[in-house]
Amino acid sequence: MKFYSTNNINNQVSFREAVIKGLPDDNGLFMPESIPVLDANFFATLPQKSIAEIAFEVAKPFVKEDINDEKLQTIVEETLNFPLPVVNVHDNINVLELFHGPTLAFKDVGARFLARCLSHFSNNSEEKVTVLVATSGDTGSAVANGFLGVPNVDVVILYPKGKVSHLQEQQLTTLGQNITALEVNGTFDDCQRMVKSAFLDKPLNKAMKLTSANSINIARLLPQSFYYYWAMAQLSGADDVVFSVPSGNYGNITAGLLAKAMGLPIKGFVASSNVNDIVPKYLATGNFEPKPSKQTISNAMDVGDPSNFPRMTALHKNSWETICQEITGYSFTDGETKEAMKMVFDKYGYVLDPHGAVGYLGLQAYLDKNGGTGVFLETAHPGKFADTVEEVIGSVEIPERLGAYLNKEKNSIEMSNQFEGLKDYLTKHLR
Ligand SMILES: *Cc1c(COP(=O)(O)O)cnc(C)c1O
Fold first, then answer.
1. 80-130: per-residue pLDDT in tens?
2. Based on the structure, what is the number of domains in the chain?
3. Residue 145 CB–ligand 1 contact under 6 Å
4. pLDDT tens per residue across span 206-251
5. Which domain holds residue 93?
6. 272-301: buried (b, 16+ CB within 10 Å) or exposed (e) per residue?
7. What CATH number corresponds to the domain at position 292?
8. N or C, where is the chain less crowded by C-beta within 10 Å?
9. Is 107 in the pocket of ligand 1 (CB under 6 A)?
10. What pTM did the predictor assign?
11. Residue 90 belongs to some domain of the structure
């Protein structure tokens, strides 16, 4: 399988190269040259399969030229070594809990797969790889944990100062070893732009081997599709399943769209956003208009220029009409999000985090109109957003492995939101 750039279909590379490069030189995004459709027997036996068995079959057509079966087996087993259960919340509303991994957010799945692919590919080379990652909260720690202590890999995390939760910041800044946290005086969009500039800077890329661990890396996108199959396996029989995905950069929902394109019989998707409603607006009007991001309580979704948008459109032949048949968009305010958290806790005893609450709201709105079997993705453990969750429902349990970060010393390097500062840091410190 080759991967092409969304900016130039003739710019094609292997899986290995796509993973190592992260981004094509032409500023597009890597996409598989064709979408393999899995055979009917695979889908018929889905409920009998383990998640690792599913993941192996799903990933194989994309990676088989670069990763042999035995290695792929190991990678998917190590990636998916925590539960990803579907739980009924009430009536036809179910939740796919993606927060049982080491950093308690769904990004563990993509980050663990990517880290294993990258270290597999860099195994035979002595050259050091620097992984650059912009984070709105959860990506950084998931990626950093995936790479902690891996030889020949440095991880540099950029996060917006004062715009991530206290726990998230502790998770980013206390790891040490081969992990550096850069505290940027700006927004997440600034961080994302700085990372992009680094990849497009020719002298910098000559001087060091940079790679991206954001959801723009194809090795993060692919594994995020595994749990859509796994959720369908757990809901065996339902033929009217709708997934509501709380979205920021739209990597998670794009992975679901990919699963559907590969034959998984999903009825539809709900793009649930906070007031950063670029995609719901696009779905309503056909116009894609990035805007500066606004800060909300679902901070990991505070994205004003969703990076996976070109992939969403590429999967649908760039047709707005076709995308609208697959996805319904809704956006919600912080007030509505808090109300949902309170109502779901009071009435059903289920604790939502602010991101999951946005997913819940989108699903509820969709089902009210269309019916069906609903699943929303709970993308982070409520304990990660203890301040908000406590304010709304009184108290929240903080899992032990999260609490452990609170007592460690924060270590970060503050910098402006200008690319030059980042470039300067990288050239001086990480050669
Ligand atoms: C990253 C993140 C999201 C948004 O996911 P995208 O793939 O960027 O759309 C939602 N919720 C949480 C908790 C996240 O960390």
1. 999 999 999 999 999 999 999 988 999 999 999 999 998 888 776 677 889
2. 1
3. no
4. 999 888 887 689 999 999 999 999 999 999 878 999 999 999 999 9
5. 83-104+220-400
6. bbbbbbbbbbbbeeeebeeeebeebbbbbb
7. 3.40.50.1100
8. C
9. yes
10. 0.90
11. yes
